[in-house]
Specification:
It contains eight helices and 20 strands. With 362 residues, it is an alpha+beta fold. α2 (92-102) crosses α3 (107-121), α2 runs parallel beside α4 and α3 (107-121) crosses α4 (136-148). The protein is globular and about 75 Å long. Keywords: ATP-binding, Nucleotide-binding, Transport.
């Protein structure tokens, strides 16, 4: 079981700063997900930890051992890439054994490790097949198995499910979760731009933007208490509703946007309470209720249905509140059409409010 520590890490390509003074502590046995949009630096950070990129400044420790300038093969890590990169002329068994043979691992030990990996990944019937005879999900299992047989304490995954269709991604996501549960002493660092993968797999998520970590926390904290507006907008599908307005403070604080007034007396502000000024009010679509379900909510309003998106189990409804888009979910069997007038309601205590200038959560 190994911990990973990244201290004051900088990485530049010429005048372009990719990672800036980045610090990250990953606990032993933890499943940490690096999440962010393309170009945010998440894969670059993973490659630095793996030793595939030489950093400009800072240090990297694995199990309290400084590995900053060690070769990838000496760091005690196993890596799974987005591309399967399997040898087409070899069987699955040959692909799993290849690296171990080069490392001169004894034959009986190789057989033992392959049998263990095959059992964990449910690929025992595939060992005599070649990659061309496998589905995409099976090939990715083999790629994971190739890292697994190395018997290391830290696994690095670089968007391993991106090349799979939605059904296969969901299936393999569950398999990776089960794998981590079985290998409870193994640390895993997983890169993705898919927030569903991040939320379902992670013990903690590090959301990255422009080479820096915006928030590092467990999935529930990131979802319910995003550190800033960027994090709030990145997590959640469909994304959070943002309404620009102002806070006014008299006896009780209120949020105002056009003709809309929302009582904030139930809202838990940090620090010494709210100050008057421009803010952004954020409420997630799943926290907004319609018609009878909205009756007892502290805030209620009438809106007109603009777009209806049936999604099976539920329906996503697009409407407008004082010029701002307002999306909310209803049961999939609810009959709605464009132009319908409906009553919606929500509890402002479940909202996130951000300073308009700094975009930090209030």
């Amino acid at each position: 079981m190994a911990s990973v520590s990244v201290k004051n890490l900088d990485l530049s390509f010429g005048d372009i700063k990719v990672l800036q003074n980045l610090n990250l502590e990953i606990d032993k046995g933890e499943f940490l997900v690096l999440l962010g949009s393309s170009g945010c630096g998440k894969s670059t950070l993973l490659n630095c930890i793996a030793g595939l990129l030489d950093i400009t400044d800072g240090q990297i420790f694995i199990s309290d051992r400084n590995v900053t300038w060690e070769q990838p093969k000496d760091r005690g890590i196993g890596m799974v890439f987005q591309s399967y990169a399997l040898y087409p002329q070899m069987t699955v068994e040959g692909n799993l054994a290849f690296g171990l043979k080069n490392a001169r691992v004894p034959k009986d030990e190789i057989e033992k490790r392959i049998a263990r990996a095959a059992q964990l990944l449910h690929i025992e019937p595939l060992l005599k097949r070649k990659p061309a005879q496998l589905s995409g999900g099976q090939r990715q299992r083999v790629a994971i198995g190739r890292a697994l047989v190395r018997d290391v304490d830290v696994f690095l995954f670089d968007e391993p499910l991106s090349n799979l269709d939605a059904k296969l991604r969901a299936e393999l996501r569950v398999e990776i979760k089960r794998l981590h549960q079985r290998l409870e002493n193994t640390t895993m660092i997983y890169v993705t731009h898919d927030q569903i993968e991040a939320m379902t797999l992670a013990d903690r998520i590090a959301i990255m933007r422009a080479g820096a970590i915006q928030q590092l926390a467990d999935p529930a904290t990131i979802y319910n208490k995003p550190y800033n507006r960027y994090v709030a907008g990145f997590i959640g599908s469909p994304s959070i509703n943002f309404i620009d307005g102002t806070i006014e403070v008299a006896s009780d604080p209120v949020f105002k946007a056009g003709d809309t007034t929302i009582d904030l007396s139930r809202y838990a502000f940090s620090g010494n309470g709210p100050k008057p000024g421009a803010v952004t009010f954020g409420i997630r679509p799943e926290h907004i209720f319609m018609d009878k379900a909205a009756t007892d909510e502290p805030f209620r309003a009438d809106v007109e249905v603009d777009v209806v998106e049936p999604m099976g189990a539920d329906t996503l409804v697009w409407s407008t509140l004082d010029g701002h888009e307002l999306r909310f979910r209803v049961d999939g069997q609810t009959p709605l059409r464009k132009g319908d007038r409906v009553k919606v309601g929500f509890d402002p205590a479940r909202a996130s409010i951000f300073d308009a200038e700094t975009e930090m959560r209030l």
